[in-house]
Write a structure and sequence with these properties.
Blueprint (H helix, E strand, L loop, with lengths): L17 E9 L13 H15 L7 E5 L3 H18 L4 E12 L3 E4 L2 E4 H10 L4 E8 L6 E3 L20 E6 L8 E3 L4 E2 H13 L7 E3 H16 L9 E6 L6 E4 L7 E5 L3 E7 L6 E7 L3 E5 L2 E9 L2 E9 L4 E4 L5 E3 L1 H6 L6 E12 L9 E12 L3 E14 L4 E19 L2 E19 L7 E17 L5 E18 L4 E19 L2
Parallel strand pairs: 1-2, 1-3, 3-6, 6-8, 14-20
Antiparallel strand pairs: 3-4, 4-5, 7-9, 8-12, 9-10, 11-13, 14-17, 15-16, 15-18, 18-19, 19-21, 22-23, 22-29, 23-24, 24-25, 25-26, 26-27, 27-28, 28-29
Helix pairs in contact: 1-4, 4-5
Length: 514
């Protein structure tokens, strides 16, 4: 019988005459010789949660299997088949089967046992449903990648000829033949599964109609997986084989209304990261969108971060059940380029130019306080901020016999450890430098000009914060330099080495050039 599949192609939110089932399987430990996985079972739970909350699958129709062997999976599929048969009725039916774990070219690796791909397709084909969607994230992983099931066996792949003889079938694999599938410690899950789920939550809704179709979810998951793994050791290309009857595309999730979830409206293109909790805890999802997009996620407090070519912004939001929060960069706090490096959000370094002006003391106490200016180039690294620059200062002082003028120009280098607290970075470090110092005198007597070199070392404290955007920063910096210089002793009528403590306070403005 040829089915029109009109109900199956409708939104899961409104198609009451479609019965949807899900079997999600996660197995961290395969057969002897397989490296243990970390996130396969967690990925299966996440898939089940999304299908239940957004995909129209009732909780009693989600079968979640963790750490199962081949016999347990066979039994679970047989039990589900009996339940579907008992349900009967005229409703059309759909099965979503998901597997994350180890595999090779011939079989799934299930807790010390193997389930052949031919047998898997036969078991799924025996279930009395109209449409089957099979998503397999298997083979290898890492990051930053650990290889997911890497071994001497050829990589897992389902070929087009493995399609079921049924009214409708779609198979999606996380990688193409000969490739590694990867999982990420940062994402706490498989690369493809993470992005495929983000698509189901709304990121893949390219049409903007509030419904995520199978094609939209696959395209989004594939694009983002390739983008993410292009920076790893292996590029991963998800693959598919679709054979669905009907002219429309199959709708997997409905993201029109929050329902029991909450809606986060992402108001502009960029890469958005959503972390659980107000302190930026576990990464809930990372999505890349090219237009305004709505995500449906559980209610709660979240730290939301936006990355664009212009910089990084973040904001803490509270999402209420059934409510919507809209965000754009203008409503968020900028994160300086240096902070993005220190937090591991962007590239491994950030370069900038700083200009500062302020006041500094003098090695000769009678000269008091004078103006100082600094020009520096700085690079922010994850452990330290390194700066190289030049400092110039001038002083003047007088007594009954003469007026003394000094000018010092020096080269310096500094290493500062910065800690970010909100938008403010507090820093402590050390600075060292060498100054060329010149002195001349106004006097009725004989006092020729003189010059010489002096060295200095100083503890440094700084406070830095963004100024109008991620690229520009303002900073207050103070140090107490210990200067080592030659000084003339009139009583001994000789020059010798002397030390002096010279404080400096500068207000600086910086601009990151990358």
């Amino acid at each position: 019988m040829t089915l029109p599949l009109l109900a199956l192609l409708a939104s899961p939110c409104s198609a009451a005459d479609v019965h949807r089932y899900a079997v999600v399987v996660g197995v961290n430990d395969g057969v002897p010789g397989d490296a243990p996985l970390t996130f396969a079972e967690l990925d299966a739970e996440r898939v089940g949660d999304v299908l239940e909350s957004l995909g129209g699958v009732r909780s009693e129709d989600v079968v979640t299997l963790r750490s199962v062997d081949a016999d347990r999976l066979r039994s679970a599929l047989a039990d589900l088949g009996d339940r579907i048969a008992r349900h009967g009725g005229d409703a059309e039916s759909l099965l979503f089967f998901y597997y994350s774990g180890h595999a090779d070219a011939d079989a799934l690796h299930l807790q010390g046992s193997r389930l052949g791909l031919g047998e898997l397709t036969a078991l799924l084909g025996a279930l009395p449903v109209d449409v089957r969607i099979v998503v397999v994230d298997a083979c290898q992983s890492g990051e930053l990648t650990r290889l997911k099931g890497a071994g001497p066996a050829e990589p897992f792949t389902i070929h087009a000829e493995d399609r079921l003889d049924s009214e409708g079938m779609a198979i999606i694999t996380s990688s193409s033949a000969g490739e590694d599938a990867q999982e990420s410690d940062r994402l706490r899950g498989g690369m493809f599964t993470h992005h495929f789920l983000a698509g189901l939550m709304g990121a893949a809704d390219a049409s903007g109609d509030g419904r995520v179709t199978l094609t939209e979810a696959y395209r989004y998951g594939r694009t983002e997986t390739i983008r993410a793994t292009s920076q790893a050791r292996f590029v991963q290309h998800p693959a598919y084989a679709f054979e669905l009857r009907g002219q429309a595309d199959l709708v997997l999730t409905c993201v029109e209304e929050p329902g029991r979830n909450a809606a986060l409206s992402l108001g502009e293109p960029g890469s958005w990261l959503v972390f659980a909790g107000r302190d930026g805890g576990e990464l809930l999802t990372e999505v890349t969108v090219d237009r305004a997009t709505q995500l449906l996620i559980p209610p709660g407090d979240y730290l939301v971060r936006l990355r664009t070519g212009r910089g990084v912004w973040e904001r803490i939001v509270t999402l209420d059940r059934g409510g919507t929060v809209s965000l754009r960069a203008a409503q968020m706090s900028p994160v300086s380029y240096g902070a993005t490096v220190r937090k591991g959000l962007e590239e491994r370094d950030a370069w900038g130019i700083l200009v500062g002006a302020g006041l500094t003391g003098a090695p000769v106490p009678s000269l008091g306080v004078g103006p100082a200016v600094r020009l520096a180039a700085q690079v922010d690294l994850e452990p330290l901020t390194i700066a190289f620059g030049a400092l110039a200062s001038a002083h003047a002082g007088a007594n009954d016999q003469l007026t003394m003028h000094t000018v010092a120009v020096g080269a310096e280098a500094a290493g500062i450890r910065k800690v970010d607290v909100g938008a403010v970075a507090f820093g402590l470090g050390l600075r060292g430098g060498v100054d060329l110092r010149g002195e001349w005198f106004d006097t009725p007597g004989s006092a020729p000009p003189r010059q010489g070199l002096s060295g200095r070392a100083a503890p440094v404290a700084s406070i830095e914060f963004p100024l109008g955007g991620p690229r520009t920063v303002a900073a207050i910096e103070a140090d107490a330099g210990i200067h080592l210089l030659r000084r003339y002793d009139a009583e001994a009528d000789a020059a010798g080495l002397a030390t002096a403590v010279v404080p400096t306070l500068l207000l600086e403005v910086g601009r990151h050039v990358r």
